[in-house]
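Q: How would the C-alpha cells look for this protein?
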Amino acid sequence: MNLGAATLREGPEPETPPGYARVKVQACGVCATDLHLLRGMVLPRGATYPVRPGHEVAGIVEELHAKTSAISEGDLVVLHPLAPCGGCRACLQGEDQRCEAVRALGMHDAGGFAEKVVWPVSRMLRANGLTPAAAALLADAAATAHNALRLARLPPGGALCVLGAGGLGTGALAVAKALDPTVRLAAVVRSEASAERLRAFGVEVHCGGLEGAARDLRRRLGRMDAVIDFSGQAEAPAEGVTLLRRGGRFVLGSVVDAQLTLGTSSAFMAHELQFIGVYVSGMRDLAAVIDLAHHGRLQAEEWVSHRRPLTEFNDAVAIAAGRPPGTVRVVVECDGAED
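A: Here is the predicted structure in C-alpha cell form.
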C-alpha cells in the first residue's frame, strides 16, 4: 500500500492548559505506526483524520502550567505517548497503557512532528544529560521493548529471539542485555547490514528473513524461552512459535495489516505455549529505560541511523519506509542536519 504525504503548516502558538507543559521539540523519532497512519490505518476510538503525528518526543520545557517539583522550565523531557484517564480499573492497577479511555499523542492530540507540543506534565519525565535524539527514542523504541520483556518473563540467563531488528527490535535486544548481561540473544533479519550490526553486539543472527529461520536457530542454539516479534510480517507468529521451548512465550509487538497465521494449534496445547500482545508501555517502563540510559547501560543514540530536519519530514518517512541498508531509526530534529 502506498504512503500518503504530510503537509507542514504554520499555526498559532499552542495554549498550555492547567496541568500541562509546552515543550519545544528537539527530536521526534519516526516509528512504524507513523507509516501505518500515512497508509490510512484504522484509528483508535475517539481519533479522526487528519492527524498530526509524532509520538517519540523529547524537548525542552518552555512553559509549565502545573505545580510540580519533578520538572522545571528548561528541563529536557521525554513525553510518554499515552495520556490515560487515571480513574479506570486499569489505571488504578498501574496498567495505564491498558486504559480504555486513553488518549494517544500524535493521534488524538497533536504530536511531536512540530516545533512545539503541549502535553500533561504527569506524562513526561526529565532526561537532562541525554542527547535529545537518544531521549526521544526512549519514549517508544526502548520503553515498549521494556514492556515486551516484562511480558516475556525471561529467566536469568534465558534465551530470547527477536524477529525484526528495526528500532523496536533493536531496542528489545539492547534493553534485554542491559537488564541481564547473561541473556542469550538471537535475531532474525533480512539484510546483511543488520546482521553485521547485531553480531557486533553479541547477537546470534539468522539473515535472509523468516523462511527457515526457526530451523536454523534451533540447530545452532536450541529452543528459546521467549520470542518477541517486531517484524511486521503476518507469517512471523507461525515461524516464531516453532522456536519456543515448552511453556515458552510469544510476544507480538507488530502492527500487521493482514490476518495472522499461528500455525498448528496442537503445538500450543501440547507444549503449553503462551501468546500475548504488547501495546506501547506504561510510565514505569519509560522511567526504567531513562534510568538505564542515565547509568550508561543503554545507548539509544547508537540506534539513530538517519537525521532529518522537520522541513524534510516526508524524506524522513520515505527512508523509514524504504529501509535502505543500515537503517535502524530515523529521527526528525527541529534544527537537524542531514546525514
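The CA atoms of residues 237 and 262 lie 5 Å apart.

The mean pLDDT is 92.

Upvote if useful.
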